[in-house]
Amino acid sequence: MLSLIPLVPVLGIIPSVALASGIEKLGATCEASYQITLLISAAITGLIVLLYTIRFEWVLKKFVKSPALYFGLFSAILYVMVGTMAFIMSVGVDSCCHGDGQTGLAVFFSAPYASAALVAFGIIVDVKKNTAIHNN
Fold first, then answer.
1. Residue 41 lies in a domain
2. Number of folded domains in the chain?
3. 2 found inside a domain
4. What is d(CA 11, CA 104) in angstroms, rounded to the nearest whole number?
5. N or C, which terminus of the chain has less Cβ within 10 Å?
6. Which residues of 27-45 are buried (b: 16+ CB within 10 A; e: fewer)?
7. What confidence score (pLDDT) does residue 136 get?
8. 3-state class of 52 per DSSP?
9. What's the rounded Cα separation, in Å, for the pair 38 and 40?
10. Does 8 score more than 90 pLDDT?
11. What is the tens place of the pLDDT at every residue in 38-56?
12. Is 1 inside any structural domain?
């Protein structure tokens, strides 16, 4: 199982590269496509965190049948989005477009940021859940 750990960050960056490529095919420059991808990733990350922190009671009522499944889904999306943001910010937009073969290695350096964000997200959700339980 530990042998799969290096694959998770690499697989997590594939959707963002596909998104940037799609934006580029629509007519944007490579640099602009990665900037737009960075903004989209930040917006989705912010939406997920706000949804879970501000509207936590709504989330519990909406997904009452299997909240753990939806938490896992939101965590996976958050991991991909934060990993994308960390990758683009650590490598830089210029290197994403014109980098050499070692640019891809930055995925492994940006993965801890995504993991740290998941830990912080989990702590926030636990605190909100315990607060909601004690208030009822």
1. yes
2. 1
3. no
4. 12
5. N
6. eeebbebbbbbbebbeebb
7. 61
8. helix
9. 6
10. no
11. 899 899 888 888 877 777 6
12. no
